[in-house]
């Protein structure tokens, strides 16, 4: 997922969004939409919720574009900070819904890597994906956030620290623990 | 400083692969712009900012409520209004009186 934007271009886009230019918002979505959607979907374990959170993220960007300060954070960092907070809100709401007996029926569409027509390979790939997804879902929330920001959003440690409003050291710890737990969950037989 | 080795890279690649699913940026942009226009503050910006209540619905409520209160029938007319609502013929009693006069 390409998340790094040519810095000045993204800042320029933000200025145009702040001026009320919808075309600039559409450009930002084209640039960052996929990354934010994938991040939110995996955070929430649900593609429909992921897309809804991505929409809400860009709506907030539209409303708060004027408050964006390029000296404090990159556009992508700011964007993922908004998405992370929205995911946390949505997780809380989903917990309440589940407590009230509501069950989610929507789930992520499993997409296999296009690694050949061999059925055995396809099944193995599906099982591996399922194992990784289960491993991600089983991570504590902050570890999951950190590893998804690193692997899916491709943010650096400093950017993740800004996004999660914590220190670099804390992020490093979260990443080490998340990777170790995933390695344990997935197992060495997967070549990891 | 955190060490980042090949195993970490492999885990990150696995997470990245597991996160993939088809996305449609065009649909996402359309959805955002549609919600953005729904949320257009318009006349009642102070009240509708961030709300999902469409401004026309809000305006109807604002206008209709005082009208209903202003034209609410006094107790003496309540029976007539109830009759109208239930489908009873208007001025039925008056019509009956006329008939009586004719007879």
Describe the structure.
The complex is a heterodimer of chains A (192) and B (103). Chain A is mainly alpha-helical. In chain A, α2 (22-44) crosses α4. In chain A, 70% of the residues lie in helices and 0% in strands. Chain A is globular. Chain B has helices at 6-19, 25-38, 45-48, 55-71, 78-86, 92-102. Chain B is mainly α and 103 residues long. Chain A binds chain B through residues 1, 22, 25-26, 29-30, 33-34, 37-39, 41-42, 47, 51, 54-55, 58-59, 62-63, 108-111, 113, 128-129, 132-133, 136, 147-148, 150-152, 157, 172, 175-176, 179, 182-183, 186, 190-192, and chain B through 2, 7-8, 10-23, 25, 28-29, 31-33, 35-36, 39, 49-50.
> Approximately how much helix is present in the residues of chain A?
over 70%
Q: Can you write the helix and strand succession of chain B as a string?
A: HHHHHH
Beta-strand portion of chain A reads under 5%
Q: Spans of chain A of 5+ residues with little confidence (pLDDT < 50)? A: 110-115
The oligomerization state is: heterodimer
- Gap from first CA to last CA of chain A: 21 Å
Helix residue percentage of chain B? 55-70%
Mean pLDDT of chain B: 71
Shape of chain A: globular
Separation, N- and C-terminal Cα atoms of chain B: 108 Å
Class of secondary structure makeup of chain A? mainly alpha
What is the N-to-C succession of helices and strands of chain A?
HHHHHHHH
Biggest interface pair, counts: A-B, 47 and 28 residues
Number of strands of chain A: 0
Task: Report the principal-axis shape of chain B.
Answer: rod-shaped
User: How many helix segments of chain B?
Assistant: 6
Q: What is Rg of chain B?
A: 32 Å
Largest sheet of chain B: none
Please mark out the parts of chain B with pLDDT under 50 across 5 or more consecutive residues, or reply none: 45-50
